[in-house]
Specification:
Number of strands: 4
Distance between the termini: 19 Å
Order of helices and strands: EHEHHEE
Number of helices: 3
Mean pLDDT: 90
Strand content: 15-25%
Low-confidence stretches: none
Radius of gyration: 14 Å
């Protein structure tokens, strides 16, 4: 199994859509270089709602991954949160969040 993590940094608003597109392109390259029999899980931190929408609109993600969040309703704050992309080859039975004691409403 390949585990990938990326902090998107939702606080930086300037060029956010272009930064997210570049991050998704880089992730796609990383996945292409992963052995085909290796399932992949991608952890994305500090996603904002627009970034979440952008990953949902990305064909290769929709085709190959389950997305844990369709909107920000389960995030500790409406401004940013975490999202996991899980390889559809994995049998997923349950997804849950662990809230951390944090002034920034972090979770895992």
């Amino acid at each position: 199994m390949s585990l990938i993590t990326w902090n998107i940094d939702a606080a930086i608003k300037s060029g956010a859509r272009l930064r997210m597109a570049a991050a998704l392109n880089h992730l796609q390259e990383q996945i292409a270089n992963t052995p085909h029999d290796t399932p992949i899980v991608i952890f994305l931190q500090e996603m904002d709602p627009k970034g979440l929408q952008q990953i949902q609109e990305t064909d290769w993600i929709r085709e190959s991954f389950y997305i844990t969040d369709l909107d920000a309703s389960n995030w500790g704050t409406p401004f940013y949160g975490t999202t996991i992309l899980m390889d559809k080859r994995l049998k997923i039975e349950k997804v849950f969040r662990v809230p951390y004691k944090s002034a920034m409403d972090r979770d895992g």
